[in-house]
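Hello again,

I reread your note about wanting to compare the complex against the isolated chains. To keep things tidy I'm splitting this into two emails, and this first one only covers the full assembly. Below are the input lines as submitted, including protein chains and any nucleic acid or small-molecule components. They are followed by the predicted structure of everything together. The single-chain runs will come separately.
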Amino acid sequence: MAELLKGKDVASAVMKRCSAVSAELKEQGITPTLAILRVGENESDLSYERGAEKRCEKAGVKVVKRVLPADITDFVFYGILDELNWDKNIHGILMFRPLPAYLDNERARCYINPVKDVDGCTDRSLGGIFTGKQIGFAPCTAEAVLETLDYYGIDPKGKNVTVIGRSLVIGKPVSMMLLNRNATVTICHTKTVDLPSVTRKADIVIAAAGQPEMLTKEYFREGQTVIDVGINWNEKKGKLCGDVLYEDAEPVVAKITPVPGGIGSVTTSVLVSHVVEAAKRAAEKADR
Amino acid sequence: MAELLKGKDVASAVMKRCSAVSAELKEQGITPTLAILRVGENESDLSYERGAEKRCEKAGVKVVKRVLPADITDFVFYGILDELNWDKNIHGILMFRPLPAYLDNERARCYINPVKDVDGCTDRSLGGIFTGKQIGFAPCTAEAVLETLDYYGIDPKGKNVTVIGRSLVIGKPVSMMLLNRNATVTICHTKTVDLPSVTRKADIVIAAAGQPEMLTKEYFREGQTVIDVGINWNEKKGKLCGDVLYEDAEPVVAKITPVPGGIGSVTTSVLVSHVVEAAKRAAEKADR
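Full-complex prediction:
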């Protein structure tokens, strides 16, 4: 029986910090504000948006929504992004991706004002994570992993951490963040040979492959901490599942995050914390 | 007896490519030009500079030197850097670091025009290596490692590669470059627990710790490829040495780079290749 690392408790702790900072800002007449930019009506975007809105409300963070039809012209789209980038009352921008291809995902990703890039998607934010300079923010999911480890008192220092996945949204940034926290980090991917033998050697396994229930029994050993970042829809079972086959891993390992109810539930609270922090930084800058 | 991976042969192959491109550019009336910016008379800078100048000459690359006294004002220093950044006849800038502290190393590092950043030191170049976008160039030493593996037909794809060191000059960028080449990469450092057990598991060991002869017998096993990036002065022996204790490793492993005569001899040829490539890119841009 593994210890369950529940995201809910982590999120509550993060939200408590957010509310405190948000209240301080309110006293200065500042309402931390997040702009959500969404094109179309993708179901998973809508579900994330609902969660984010709820969390923002709880922390006194205002949400401004810009919902655009899937056939928006790129002239109008980038015009709106310009407005959000320059509007002093907007502290953070969350843009759902992928966008329709004709809007140029790569351009849009880096178009966001780095100081408002609360989901760490621009080159400047990501570059800062690589060089160790604080520019903007880390991708929320990557930081949710660190928040979860911290909350449960799991110090990555000197630990062997295996990260499965090398995307810019999670695999690469979380690897760099763990490296900055003095973990010995191994980055695996689809070309890794004999992945189970690599994961079994790890003290902490971060599963971010985006493959439903890919990590079965042979990937794990006793004593490990397993952080499952995957959120996949299991057609056969008709429910959400992670990258880890939970019923295989849970009896073996020491600690594990469930799906749902794990990292996914921490992510939006991290988003809120970034908006509040962005508002705080903007206020400090204006003070100077 | 390990196979010796000699840098000289790699460098010759790189230089051959450089000379060919350089000759093409000459036909268009373009002389690829490197500016070397040096403050003071540090002996290791001077030695690297001599090597770079010799190589540049061989490939038909012009070198412009800006040698400044160690008490230069920052006003003049950044003025010169401005000139080099804007001068259309300068294609690459090599700035020796560390600079005297009052010149602000961090500022100077990122001040170089990214398209001329032939040693990959700016945030933009490094960010590009992280995100996989080609912006500027990789740090020369990191690329020298890849050139060496390529020359000797060692494909990192699917291999377990352990990198020791996490600096922005070599450890982090070479890790990302190897990851892009589909290696399974483990990044180690001073906080890694039981380093020998980690290096012994690797197919390829990249030693970039900056610690003279730190990697002794117990770090290695049969069949490994060892790339020694270290260049240290061994006071006791009165000679240059790597991070690997050569006489320990060489009888055990399959392939090894010597020090001197290994990666260090490839680095300046990579620098030349970057200058030539920067000149080529500038010409193509002017053509458009």
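For quick reference: The interface with chain B takes residues 123-124, 126-133, 135, 157-160, 166, 168, 172, 175-176, 179, 182, 184-189, 191-193, 198, 201 of chain A (CB under 8 Å).

B.
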